[in-house]
């Protein structure tokens, strides 16, 4: 999750929709949060090492199963509208989708079952809070926030109408709740990123 800055130009439109987003050209990547556009910075080597390590682990585990793992950049429309007037489009670092009906040609249309965000120095607490709020509202079953600098994972599980937060740190093993039997070794993750 590497958000560099919010687009803030008083001469420009400030309440964007997915339809607007699809018209943008260029190499820059953006996320929309409640109509505000956020430019995404290029991820660090440690960030990418963690993302790739997780992609391989999840990909191997899900081989031959109904769920699929995806990595950024991929648009996730938590509250898709047919006319593309929805105004929240996120790009989680990693996501798992078990309902193939949510996969359209260019985006995931609806909440993934699992979302993983890897914190970068450019992230703000406000962005993390807003994203968590939208994931909660959309019904994401499992949400991870990985902080490589602190060597910590905050895992949010949706259980019986409430989120349960569990913190894993150092070299603990993190169980993937939505995929019983899959566990992620933080020691391996940190070593992969040379942290």
Notes on the structure:
The chain has 195 residues and is an alpha+beta fold. Helices cover 23% and strands 32% of the residues. It has four helices and 14 strands. The chain has helices at 18-23, 45-62, 125-138, 186-192, and strands at residues 3-6, 29-33, 36-40, 68-71, 75-77, 89-90, 94-97, 107-109, 114-118, 142-147, 152-159, 162-169, 173-175, 183-185. Strands 4-7-9-10-11-12 form a six-stranded mixed sheet, with helices on both faces. It has a three-stranded antiparallel sheet with strand order 1-3-2, with helices on one face. A three-stranded mixed sheet has the order 6-5-8, with no helix packed on it. A hairpin with a 2-residue loop joins strand 2 and strand 3.
């Amino acid at each position: 999750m590497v958000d560099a800055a919010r687009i803030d130009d008083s001469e420009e439109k400030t309440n964007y929709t997915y339809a607007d987003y699809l018209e943008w050209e260029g190499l820059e990547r953006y996320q929309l949060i409640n109509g505000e556009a956020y430019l995404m910075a290029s991820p660090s080597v440690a960030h990418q090492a963690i993302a790739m390590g997780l992609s391989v682990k999840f990909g191997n585990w899900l081989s031959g199963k109904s769920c699929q793992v995806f990595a950024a950049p991929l648009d996730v429309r938590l509250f898709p509208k047919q006319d593309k007037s929805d105004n929240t489009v996120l790009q989680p670092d990693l996501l798992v989708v078990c309902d193939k009906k949510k996969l359209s040609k260019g985006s995931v249309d609806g909440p993934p079952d699992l979302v993983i965000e890897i914190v970068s120095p450019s992230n703000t607490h406000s962005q993390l809070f807003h994203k968590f709020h939208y994931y909660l509202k959309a019904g994401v079953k499992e949400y991870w926030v990985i902080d490589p600098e602190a060597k910590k994972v905050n895992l949010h599980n949706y259980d019986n109408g409430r989120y349960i937060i569990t913190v894993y740190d150092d070299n603990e093993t993190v169980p993937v709740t939505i995929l019983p039997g899959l566990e992620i070794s933080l020691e391996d993750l940190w070593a992969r990123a040379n942290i």
